[in-house]
Design goal:
- It is a single chain.
- By secondary structure, the chain is of the alpha/beta class.
- The chain folds into 2 domains: 119 residues, Response regulator (Rossmann fold), CATH 3.40.50.2300; 99 residues, Arc Repressor Mutant, subunit A.
- Helix content is 40%, strand content 21%.
- The protein contains 8 helices and 12 strands.
- The strands form 3 sheets. The protein has a 5-stranded parallel β-sheet with strand order 2-1-3-4-5, sandwiched between helices.
- The radius of gyration is 18 Å and the shape is globular.
- The two termini are 34 Å apart.
- The mean pLDDT is 86.
């Protein structure tokens, strides 16, 4: 996995590759220019089928998918990518469409940006997500908490010796919470350390990912015993 730096490049000087999929040609041109100016290599697609083809042929490091695309919409592209890839995904959704936001996150998207948005905002999200998605490669500390063993070398989590399948972001979220077990972590803290943003925290983003992480690690997700909600504050990880 290639390590991202702050300028859209890897540590060895190669440019990180971003796929942008949107049927708006003018918007594609603007985003391509903005990302290239920041040092990223950009590949583009005008519909969902073309987006999947570009992932297969160009192997981008991150994908930006518009929800409303011809052929296959962004949701279906996200779903298919998650069957075989942990590539970070940002969804572009219409402002106020909470159902779209939640659905995209449930299908495996890491983040979302609502329209209308500024190219600067999207570039900042891409940079932060690319940097955070690769940062765990340099972490070699294996963590143990209760029945869980976390192996960052192989991005693997085991519970009582059995491997639990997690997405890249679910792994990073759990790793951070375990590393700070017993501490109440505010939504803002999780956003800054897992997603890499200094912007105001997004409760929907964090809540949805916590929900799906509980589905993977809790014996009874409806009565979580490991990831506990602290009302009005945030979450904490407590090993039994």
């Amino acid at each position: 996995m290639r390590i991202a730096t702050a300028n859209g490049q890897t540590e060895d000087g190669e440019r990180l590759k971003v796929l942008i999929a949107d049927d708006d040609a003018d918007l594609l041109d603007i985003l391509e220019f903005s990302l290239q100016r920041e040092g990223f290599e950009v590949v583009s697609a005008r519909d969902g089928r073309q987006a999947l083809a570009r992932v297969a042929t160009d192997q981008p490091d991150l994908a930006v998918l518009d929800v409303s695309m011809p052929e296959l919409d962004g949701f279906e592209v996200c779903r298919r990518l998650r069957l075989e890839s942990s590539i970070p995904i940002i969804m572009l959704t219409a402002r106020g469409e909470d159902e779209d936001i939640v659905l995209g996150l449930e299908l495996g998207a890491d983040d979302y940006v609502t329209k209308p948005y500024s190219p600067r905002e999207l570039v900042a999200r891409v940079r932060a997500l690319a940097r955070r998605s690769n940062a765990s490669v340099s972490r070699r500390d294996h963590l143990v908490a209760g029945p869980f063993q976390i192996d960052p070398d192989h991005m693997e989590v085991r519970r009582n010796g059995d491997t639990i399948r997690l997405t890249r972001l679910q792994f990073e979220l759990l790793r951070f919470m375990v590393a700070n077990q017993g501490q109440v972590l505010a939504t803002e803290t999780l956003m800054e350390n897992v997603w890499g943003y200094n912007a105001p925290a997004d409760a929907t983003l964090v809540k949805t990912h916590i929900y799906h992480l509980r589905q993977r690690i809790e014996e009874d997700p409806s009565h979580p015993q490991y990831i506990v909600t602290v009302p009005g504050v945030g979450y904490l990880f407590q090993p039994r």
